[in-house]
C-alpha cells in the first residue's frame, strides 16, 4: 500500500494519504487546512522488518537461586 506521509508547511501538522498514482502527488492537500503547501516525507512505516520474540529462552526462568540458604 503506497501510503505517504506529508508535512504541512502552513499548519505544521502531518497527514497520511494513500497515493495510487504518482501524478496524484501534485493534487494532494493538507487534510487539516486544505493547503497545498506540503512536503512529502520519507516514510518507512510500511517497510519495517517484522522483529520480535528476541527474548532469551532462559530469561523467564528466574527464581532458581532462591532455594536453600535461609
Ligand atoms: Zn495544513
UniProtKB/TrEMBL annotation:
<protein>
    <submittedName>
        <fullName>Zinc ribbon domain-containing protein</fullName>
    </submittedName>
</protein>
<feature type="compositionally biased region" description="Polar residues">
    <location>
        <begin position="44"/>
        <end position="54"/>
    </location>
</feature>
<feature type="domain" description="Putative regulatory protein FmdB zinc ribbon">
    <location>
        <begin position="1"/>
        <end position="43"/>
    </location>
</feature>
<dbReference type="InterPro" id="IPR013429">
    <property type="entry name" value="Regulatory_FmdB_Zinc_ribbon"/>
</dbReference>
<feature type="region of interest" description="Disordered">
    <location>
        <begin position="44"/>
        <end position="70"/>
    </location>
</feature>
<dbReference type="Pfam" id="PF09723">
    <property type="entry name" value="Zn_ribbon_8"/>
</dbReference>
Amino acid at each position: 500500500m503506497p501510503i505517504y506521509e506529508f508535512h504541512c508547511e502552513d499548519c505544521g501538522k502531518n497527514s497520511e494519504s494513500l497515493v495510487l498514482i504518482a501524478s496524484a502527488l501534485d493534487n494532494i492537500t493538507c487534510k487539516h487546512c486544505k493547503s497545498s503547501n506540503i512536503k512529502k516525507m520519507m516514510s518507512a512505516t510500511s517497510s519495517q522488518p517484522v522483529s520480535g520474540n528476541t527474548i532469551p529462552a532462559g530469561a523467564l526462568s528466574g527464581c532458581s537461586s532462591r532455594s536453600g540458604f535461609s
